[in-house]
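Hi all, long-time lurker, first post. I run a small reading group and we've been trying to get comfortable going from sequence to structure in the token notation. Rather than ask abstract questions, I figured I'd post a concrete chain and ask someone more experienced to write out its structure so we can walk through it together at our next meeting. Sequence below, copied exactly:
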Amino acid sequence: MMFSFTAAAIQCAFVDIAADLDVSVHETTYLVALFIAVTGSSPLFWGPMSNTFGRRPIFLISLACTLAGNVACALSPSYLAMAGCRAITAFFVSPAASLGSAVVSEIFFKKNRGRYMGVWTVMITLGIPTAPLVFGFVAFRVGYRWIYWILAITNSVQFLLHFFLGSETRYDPTTAPTSPPTLVQRYFGFRRINPKPIRPFDFVRPLTFVTRKCVIMAASSHAMVFLWCTVMTTLEIPQIFPKKFGLNAQEVGLQNIGNIVGTLVGEQVGGFCSDKWMLLPQGRGKAAKPEFRLWLSYMGGYILAIVGVVIFLLQIDNATNQWNVTPLVGAGIAAAGNQIVTTVMVTYAVDCYPKDAAAIGGLVNFVRQTWGFIGPFWFPLMIEKLGLTRSTAVPIATMVGVSVIPTMLLQWKGRTWNKEHESLADSRWKHKA
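-- Answer (accepted) --
Happy to help. Here is the structure in token form:
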């Protein structure tokens, strides 16, 4: 959660930051966009490192260096200095963005994977609206720089908790110790888990999953919905609402309650209900194929996502200078749809290739963060040129074209594509042998 929480922490204070650093409000949004861009690519580095040395040491390094990055942000005297420190912070906080899927796969059985994959995805999603809700009070009461100080304090507490309570989940039977570790070995005995040397190819391996249609289609479907239902709504609220309704940082933060409620409601369908859904074929003596889970993305996910974004944009356009709750209802509906799609699609991709959960998490994160990085640059231009009402055509068209139709193709051909890839992999292995 702290990955996305840190990224979105300053969203409620765009106006305050712009005034302090002498830049425009729109330029201030680039501090978030830059953070998103770095967290999209940097997990490519952390994935191979965690596969070799384990998850625990990588998480500890991540927390310690993120703490230092947040302190540097709090002390930054200029816009460029703060942008550079945000980039450094993003690099070190990013392991949580991609390694979560691997940790879930290493801890839980397949029958519970949807529920606990949902816990991980919902924490990532919740971080985005929760951060401005919490830090709106901070920015209004004691100044926005205390946002960074509080993040640093939180990182220090996390580090201590993870050091003493966090266990290693990466396991390799060929290098596993034969006797129980001593107390000192448990906390300080860092070792190489995977004896194989790290190759340059390992750092780009997640990107090779673009050739696996089931993974790249699931990642793209999730990323497009995430772009509109989470990135767009949470970025436009702090830009539009202060100007239109005269809200301060504290009041802007409160506008994110709808997203939080929607995300929590959506997770009940995407996680718990999807696991129960996958048990239905077993009642008829059949094993559920991964594609069976995708039905839930239509039933609640895509419909709610499209309807919610349309309501959000239309009701902002229809509103007077007097604040009303209807745009936030749309944002909450969109958040519910996004969470359903997120959990279903990520779980589906991991179900297809469970041994490659870390690489899949890296690719999903790369696609999601890349699109999320581009969005803040053209959202304001779209709204300015088309207006809020006509802009609704863009999310409808893109979500149908990039999310709904590819999901239909996955249900139709997904199993065939997986078998073709498995056959190709077997033939290559036999050829090498």
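A couple of things your group might point at:
Confidence is low (pLDDT under 50) at residues 425-433.
Residues 2-168+201-432 form a domain with the Growth Hormone; Chain: A; fold (CATH 1.20.1250.20).
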